[in-house]
Every structure is written in C-alpha cells, then in structure tokens.
Amino acid sequence: MLTRIDHIGIACFDLDKTVEFYRATYGFEVFHSEVNEEQGVREAMLKINETSDGGASYLQLLEPTREDSTVAKWLAKNGEGVHHIAFGTADVDGDAEEIKGKGVRVLYEEPRRGSMGSRITFLHPKDCHGVLTELVTSAPVESPEH
Ligand code: V0V
Ligand code: CO
C-alpha cells in the first residue's frame, strides 16, 4: 500500500546552486546527500515533513553525473524542473507486482538501490499520464542500542 509522498525529484544543472536556492528562499536544509553511480546522479535530500506512516517527505534535487544518464537526457530536452514523483510503501516488491498486473510497465525486474539505502523501482511515464513515478521502500531504521 502506498502511504505517503516519499519525495519529489527535481532535475537541476547545478546541485550546489539549487540547494542554496532552497535554503535561502525557504529555509530547507540538506538532510542527506550522495552520489548514485548506477542512476548517474548526485543528489541532495531536503526533508520537508514527517508522515503518519513513520516515514517522511523530501525534495530530491538531482544533478547528472554523466552525459548518458536519464537525468542528463531529460535536462537536455526539458531544462530544469520536476522530473519524477515517488510514493512510499512498506512493500515495494508487492506493490510493483500488483501495479504491473494492472498493465503499467514497471521498469526494473527487481527493485534497485535508492537514496539512503532505500529500494526503488519506476513506472513508465507513458503509462502514468506523463508522470515518471517511483515506488520507494525506505531502509529499516536502526533501533537504538540498549
Ligand atoms: C522521459 N519521458 C518522461 C520522463 N522521461 N516523461 C515524464 N517524465 C520524465 N521524467 C518521456 C519522454 O518525453 C518521451 O516521450 C518518452 O518518455 C521516452 O523518453 P526518452 O527521452 O526517449 O527516454 P528513455 O525512453 O530512454 O527513458 C525514459 C525512462 C528513463 C523513463 C525509461 O528516464 C528511466 O529509466 N527512468 C528511471 C530512472 C531514473 O529516472 N533515474 C534518475 C532518478 P515522447 O517525447 O516520446 O512523447 S534516480 C532516483 O530517483 C533515486 C536514486 C532515488 O529516488 O533514490
Ligand atoms: Co527519486
């Protein structure tokens, strides 16, 4: 079951400048940043709010790391802007399977590694009324040691 907006992915040419815009304009701080070589992105996660399912909603700012990445290709065609939306679920495998059964193309056979150790997959934008849609299961939160 999809229980939150996990993040909105925003493609940009210059991650540092874009992070500074979100900090100076809205006061949002970087919660986490990483490079995902498989996806060809350098990203910053800005936490916006906690959600009732125990997760959170983020903005995910994305800068391409290589010319042949999906985000570089998208930026060349569209310029900067909203690239994808991501719904959070406790069960990305089960939800992807169920959605696939409804005739929507799921892009990966198995979920791949996403931000902060999450597991992610994508639904084809042409099957989702023009919106590239991601499904995310967050990494389990480590329980504090006693
Ligand atoms: C492409 N299209 C889009 C789109 N990207 N429509 C809406 N939103 C997007 N972001 C449209 C495009 O305009 C074309 O329509 C058509 O789909 C085919 O696009 P294309 O340019 O020929 O590109 P493809 O087919 O090579 O690749 C498109 C797909 C690709 C969606 C298959 O971008 C993909 O595999 N995306 C999933 C991975 C990804 O995006 N990773 C970066 C974020 P017309 O012009 O023919 O009508 S990584 C991330 O989010 C992480 C790590 C995380 O959350 O943790
Ligand atoms: Co994403």
List keywords for this structure.
8-stranded mixed β-sheet; binds cobalt (II) ion; alpha+beta; Methylmalonyl-CoA/ethylmalonyl-CoA epimerase; metal-binding; binds ligand V0V; 2,3-Dihydroxybiphenyl 1,2-Dioxygenase, domain 1; Glyas_Bleomycin-R_OHBP_Dase; 21% helix; globular; methylmalonyl-CoA epimerase activity; 146 residues
Report on the architecture of this protein.
The protein is of the alpha+beta class. It has one domain (2-137): 2,3-Dihydroxybiphenyl 1,2-Dioxygenase, domain 1 (Roll). It is built from three helices and eight strands. Strands 2-3-4-1-5-8-7-6 form an eight-stranded mixed beta sheet. A hairpin with a 5-residue loop joins β6 and β7 (119-123). The longest helix is centred in the first third of the chain and has 12 residues, at 15-26. It is globular. The relative contact order is 0.21. The model has no long low-confidence stretch (mean pLDDT 96). Ligand V0V binds at residues 9, 36, 39, 41, 60, 62, 70-71, 73-74, 83-84, 86, 107, 114-115, 118, 120, 122, 124-126, 130, 132, 134. Belongs to the methylmalonyl-CoA epimerase family. GO terms for molecular function: metal ion binding; methylmalonyl-CoA epimerase activity. InterPro entries: Glyas_Bleomycin-R_OHBP_Dase (IPR029068), MeMalonyl-CoA_epimerase (IPR017515), MMCE/EMCE_epimerase (IPR051785), VOC_core (IPR037523).
